[in-house]
Amino acid sequence: MITRKxxxxxxxxxxxxxxxxxxxxxxxxxAFPHFRGMEAILYLKPAMDALVITPRVCGICGHxxxxxxxxxxxxxxANSGFPLEISPKAEMIRELTLSLELxxxxxxxxxxxxxxxxxxxxxxxxxxSCRLKGAYAASLATKVLAIFAGQWPHSSYMIPGGVTCDPTxxxxxxxxxxxxxLIRWFEKExxxxxxxxxxxxxxxxxxxxxxxxxxxxxxxxxxAKMHKQGFSYDRYMVLGNHGFSNPSKYINRRIAKVxxxxxxxxxxxxxxxxxxxxxxxxxxxxxxxxxxxRAVTNGVPFIKHLHRSFRDSTYTRIMxxxxxxxxxxxxxxxxxxxxxxxxxxFIEPNKKITSISGEGIGIVEAPRGPLIHKVTLNKGIIDSYxxxxxxxxxxxxxxxxxxxxxxKAMIGADSIETATFTFRSFDVCSVCTTH
Amino acid sequence: MKPRLKxxxxxxxxxxxxxxSFLNYPHLLYVLxxxxxxxxxxxxxxxxxxxxxxxVHECDILIFEGAYDPRMERVGTSLETLVxxxxxxxxxxxxxxxCASFGGMFKHSDPEHITGLGFDEKEPKGPFAxxxxxxxxxxxxxxxxxMGYTLRMIADNKPIAVDELxxxxxxxxxxxxxxxxxxxxxxxxxxxxxxxxxxGCLFYKQGCRGPMTHASCNKILWNDVSSKTRAGSPCFGxxxxxxxxxxxxETKTNMSIPQDVPVGIxxxxxxxxxxxxxxxxxxxxxxxxxxxxx
Lengths: 435, 294
Ligand code: SF4
Ligand code: SF4
Prior knowledge:
The structure holds two protein chains of two kinds. Chain A is of the alpha+beta class. In chain A, 44% of the residues lie in helices and 16% in strands. The longest helix of chain A has 34 residues, at 88-121. By secondary structure, chain B is an alpha/beta fold. Helix content of chain B is 25%, strand content 13%.
């Protein structure tokens, strides 16, 4: 029996067709019906315009797109023999604002998607105001981001050669003040223990120290048996290089090097439905991306421990994303403290972009995993632009023999509701998937 | 409690940027207390989108985000049907962002079929062309306070005067240039010779559209803290019908004179003023703002 269901509130919609056998999901296809043609919009535009256009791929992770676009253009410079110099200050500010975008994303996902959906699943409704907690925390993170980037969403402050802003210590002090407030909020509302203690958790047992909403979420996840389902391939892919990530893959319980050249795109599997999302694979294999992938390949002790006990269950996936928020808050604090503002924000490329031709690739870790921008320039004009987004990995739609990570994770679920919840544990974003 | 006004937040061809911009609004609690969202993609809502798509409900305010493509379907119902049904019952139709207002970024994915709700760039076109119900909150994205203002004015039964592009005058009579920290450099024609400095104006080389753009970005700051020009990025003119333009990081010039000059100022007056201002050499404005040597 096949049941079709629209899954909403995923930055758009997906149509999922579930096949049931003996009251369990035996297969599911995922289709994304919306398409905007971003790559075509970029065609023949001046390279710099990509810094304004690509953030508009996605309202929740546009900053990651900006970062990937700037890295792609800088890589064209490098590949054509003119590597650009970026000051450590500019690198750090970029990394800081990217991390803040991840933080806002994770807070929204936890409070506006996971917490209410989980309560719904267990029929334990939570107050409407609870969702607003996510928006509040996210707005503090974007406030800090905007001190450097001018605004969020849709800033274009990263440019080849650095960043446009020229902050003073008045700005960084202000940023630290708001970040402190966010951390205090995190400690009071989410964990009930200090950020430091939370970061020192080392096993599932330690979760008994946690109070606050995280305690509630943890309990509910277990009540819903989320630690016993939602298993996927237990294969992970990280491609973006940052202070919080380590480009590598995890396969057969080992961490190994990766080569972004081996990333490939494949047409999705469909039966009688239109979908615009291409599958992203590595050497023909599906890989899971995102916070769990980053934590496993980076050896984050607490998540490694959960992973050992509960593998890649829906529970581990959700805990990894929540925990990454804490890691990133700490990372932002360190970055803010280590900025040397006397360094230049921008070092002018000594070649004009209008004389630059060639290919380039920009890779960053976006909230949901590796984001790849590939560009070919002809005298500074875009000849081709390819976007490969993290959700194209997680939400790829393969055949019954080769399901994608989310498809595989839904197999075995005893109802559409639990399968959908597992689907959401991947933090689905429809606009990025299809662009 | 008096009955809450019913709001439906629908999305067309979009990036969801306005949704996320609005989530930064500091007074969301007020919004939820005053309005009932029939549907919103993240805020608590009465119905699912699937229930909305049956078109049996009605709303007082339709908020539409994204460009309008009548053929696009949301969970199986075309935008033409959805916008037609909900829009005809609503007292107000609010276009959130430049795509919904004028077609914006996503008009470019299919210029023939895609428009805003009431405009195709600056030409009246679309299901609410010339409709008195239509309020455009252009911007890519719109600022959360602009939506907050509009909703509260409606809730309080206060009239909202709009300009010829249906944008609230109180928000869009300002130019992005008003309140920019670089104003003095603009006055004395001191340009920023490259990006990444707090000194200098971005009008002459870096493509700043501030003086030609109706927006209060430097009056009501972004995320309460900053704006593009304060962070050293040029204004891209994202609240105007011609957004996105091309070559957005460069000023178009003819014989080194900017092609566009501030709104409502004749080229001659501009050039006269600029010529005089440029003839002075003002050491204070040519130095770094915070002098390292003293
Ligand atoms: S106007 Fe800008 S922010 Fe709004 S939907 Fe369009 S691209 Fe996104
Ligand atoms: S940078 Fe732009 S907004 Fe600021 S003063 Fe110059 S022209 Fe005006």
